[in-house]
């Protein structure tokens, strides 16, 4: 009959093998590396960056009135009337003048088309518009600032999703390791009970109980394997990267220290809403210049002609002042709409600021709670391990039951899961506080 020391040695070897490092899963994937990949691969961030490019283009479009324009024009047409005729010398002296003459509708040739052609350059420049263009440029720049703030907010959202998914993967991996140890211990216990029953040292009813415990442990392990696969897929989706078959999480994340409290900073989500508010206010201001006068200079020069090789000079220079009078209320309505949007964004920013403050307080409280839970859970593990050892000893001496051993093992596994959960919650709070300080 195997002695109790041999059976305890076999039990210890099995537990050590279950806890041994998995050589096949040697590629440690760091959270920071996945964050970098996510910032490169995620489509939502690409879209946010594209919106920044659009706002840059809107600034250049708003500056267009500052720059003169030059157009080249050429056209050929044909229409009745306006045939060139030469005035008699008695009216013009030695200079030849041509005038356009047309026949009435009842005369022959009144509908005969006469070809005409024209070519020239048109120049136009806005000299002064009393702040209209400047207001449009300010609105476009405010929109760019809002787009930049939105991009930073999206970066925070992407990294937040990656961190949450990574912690889920880390917890699933740790849970699977604990349940794998529990399943290995159940197999070892069942083999030990089989040996006892075969020797006649224990009743046969204990074998059924040991087999039930082994099957339950294997079922828990199978569930944890599926949870690990799901967590891995969630992380791949969040990061936009494909993990190798040998990838495993960085367990050092569970040991990170909380950040040193920094000065007051503006959260990217709050900043994005504030910049959108500023952009709406700038747009409302731009609509207020709708009735401002515009002083512009225009000039065109070229040639025009008809009837073969006859060419005539064409030029004009003009200084014009334009004052919009009525627009049906469009600009005032647009300004009111933009002001209402600014009020909306301002209210959202105020609410988001309060939410961020509460979230930081909650993260700090969660960190303190997780540290206390971790200390208690460590004591729980130590007590559970003592219970397992005592139950095994009693069972080997014939004074204890197998059910006591099984219950002690279940309690030990639960205690280790409590430690894992507390460490994960602590790591989550540390990451949230680090993100707040990084802003």
Low-confidence stretches: 1-25
Which class of secondary structure composition applies to the elements? alpha+beta
Q: How many angstroms does the end-to-end distance come to?
A: 67 Å
Instruction: Report the major sheet.
Output: 4 strands, antiparallel
> What would the average pLDDT be, to the nearest integer?
87
Q: Report the C-alpha radius of gyration, rounded.
A: 42 Å
Query: What fraction of residues sit in β-strands?
Result: 15-25%
> In which order are the strands of the major sheet placed?
2-5-7-8
Give a description of the structure.
This protein has a single domain, classed as Outer membrane efflux proteins (OEP), CATH 1.20.1600. α2 crosses α5 and α5 runs antiparallel to α7. The radius of gyration is 42 Å and the shape is elongated. The strands form three sheets. The protein has a four-stranded antiparallel β-sheet with strand order 2-5-7-8, with no helix packed on it. Strands 1-6 form a two-stranded parallel ribbon. The protein has a two-stranded antiparallel sheet with strand order 3-4. The chain is 64% helix and 15% strand. With 439 residues, it is α+β, with helices and mostly antiparallel strands. A hairpin with a 4-residue loop joins β7 and β8. It has nine helices and eight strands.
């Amino acid at each position: 009959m195997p002695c109790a020391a041999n059976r305890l040695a076999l039990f210890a070897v099995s537990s050590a093998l279950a806890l041994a490092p998995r050589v096949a899963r040697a590629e440690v994937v760091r959270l920071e590396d996945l964050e970098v990949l996510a910032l490169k691969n995620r489509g939502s961030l690409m879209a946010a960056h594209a919106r920044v490019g659009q706002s840059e283009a809107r600034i250049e479009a708003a500056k267009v009135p500052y720059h003169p324009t030059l157009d080249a024009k050429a056209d050929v047409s044909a229409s009745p009337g306006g045939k060139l005729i030469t005035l008699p010398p008695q009216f013009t002296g030695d200079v030849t003048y041509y005038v356009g003459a047309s026949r009435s509708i009842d005369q022959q040739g009144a509908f005969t088309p006469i070809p005409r052609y024209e070519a020239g350059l048109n120049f136009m420049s806005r000299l002064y518009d009393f702040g209209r263009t400047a207001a449009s440029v300010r609105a476009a720049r405010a929109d760019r600032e809002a787009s930049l703030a939105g991009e930073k907010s999206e970066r925070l959202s992407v990294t937040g999703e990656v961190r949450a998914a990574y912690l889920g993967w880390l917890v699933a991996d740790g849970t699977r390791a604990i349940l794998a140890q529990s399943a290995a211990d159940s197999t070892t216990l069942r083999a030990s009970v089989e040996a006892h029953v075969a020797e006649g040292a224990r009743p046969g009813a204990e074998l059924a109980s040991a087999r039930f415990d082994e099957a339950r442990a294997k079922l828990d392990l199978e569930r944890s394997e599926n949870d690990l696969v799901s967590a891995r897929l969630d992380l791949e989706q969040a990061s936009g990267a494909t993990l190798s078959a040998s990838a495993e999480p960085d367990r050092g994340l569970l040991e990170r220290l909380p950040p040193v409290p920094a000065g007051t900073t503006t959260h990217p989500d709050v900043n994005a809403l504030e910049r959108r508010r500023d952009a709406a206010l700038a747009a409302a201001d731009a609509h207020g210049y709708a009735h401002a006068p515009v002083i512009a200079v225009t000039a065109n020069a070229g040639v025009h002609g008809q009837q073969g090789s006859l060419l005539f000079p064409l030029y004009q220079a003009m200084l014009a002042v334009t004052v919009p009078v009525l627009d049906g209320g469009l600009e005032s309505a647009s300004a009111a709409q933009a002001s209402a949007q600014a009020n909306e964004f301002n209210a959202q920013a105020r609410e988001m600021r309060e939410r961020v403050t509460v979230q930081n307080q909650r993260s700090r409280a969660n960190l303190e709670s997780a540290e206390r839970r971790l200390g208690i859970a460590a004591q729980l593990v130590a007590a559970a391990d003592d219970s397992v050892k005592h139950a095994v000893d009693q069972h080997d001496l014939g004074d204890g039951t197998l059910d006591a051993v099984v219950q002690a093992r279940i309690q030990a596994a639960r205690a280790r899961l409590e430690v894992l959960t507390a460490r994960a919650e602590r790591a989550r709070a540390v990451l949230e506080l680090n993100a707040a300080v990084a802003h």
